[in-house]
């Protein structure tokens, strides 16, 4: 058997699993005068509480850590589903609008002041030759004469 806990605004209602006899309630070591099956905590401050109810030799205990607030609104499943669906539809609508408006702008040449003309692409100049690998020219063979292979 389990406790039944109902939370509404700052009111917490706890129903003891015991059904017979007079029920003694105890909250964090303090005994209560209430002898009914339901115990109501008005203006609960969201602090954790150890709750126990007993009747004769039977005793049930529970740790209650309920967050409550005065200005909260409860939403049913249908309302939450509707909110999420509407948000997704709006997001996809904006995404489609941005896609179609940006798609048309790709083919146009920009006319801003800092842009360069998009005519013929400029070719890069050839790389500067490395002096270590210059080709041998006529009349310079003596510079490379010591590099020829020697037979052993």
From TrEMBL:
Region (Disordered): 105-139
Chief location bin: membrane
Source organism phylogeny: Eukaryota, Metazoa, Chordata, Craniata, Vertebrata
Keyword Membrane (UniProt): yes
Single Gene Ontology BP annotation: positive thymic T cell selection
Segment forming the signal sequence: none
Name under which the protein is recorded: T-cell surface glycoprotein CD3 epsilon chain
Lineage: superkingdom: Eukaryota
Membrane topology label: Single-pass type I membrane protein
InterPro entries: CD3_esu/gsu/dsu (IPR015484), Ig-like_fold (IPR013783), Phos_immunorcpt_sig_ITAM (IPR003110)
Record localization: Cell membrane
GO molecular function: transmembrane signaling receptor activity
Organism: Antrostomus carolinensis (Chuck-will's-widow)
Pfam name, any one: Ig_5
GO terms under cellular component: alpha-beta T cell receptor complex; external side of plasma membrane
Regions that span the bilayer: 78-101
Keywords per UniProt: Cell membrane, Immunity, Immunoglobulin domain, Membrane, Receptor, Signal, Transmembrane, Transmembrane helix
């Amino acid at each position: 058997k389990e406790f039944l806990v109902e939370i509404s605004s700052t009111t917490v209602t706890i129903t003891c699993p015991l059904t017979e006899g007079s029920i003694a309630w105890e909250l964090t070591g303090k005994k209560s005068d209430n002898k009914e099956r339901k115990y109501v905590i008005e203006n609960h401050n969201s602090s954790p509480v150890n709750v126990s109810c007993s009747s004769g030799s039977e005793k049930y205990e529970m740790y209650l850590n309920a967050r409550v607030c005065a200005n909260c609104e409860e939403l049913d499943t249908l309302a939450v589903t509707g909110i999420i669906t509407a948000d997704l539809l709006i997001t996809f609508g904006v995404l489609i609008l941005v896609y179609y408006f940006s798609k048309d702008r790709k083919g146009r040449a920009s006319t801003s002041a800092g842009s360069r003309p998009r005519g013929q692409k400029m070719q890069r100049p050839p790389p500067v030759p490395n002096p270590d690998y210059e080709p041998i020219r006529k009349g310079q063979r003596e510079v490379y004469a010591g590099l020829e292979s020697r037979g052993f």
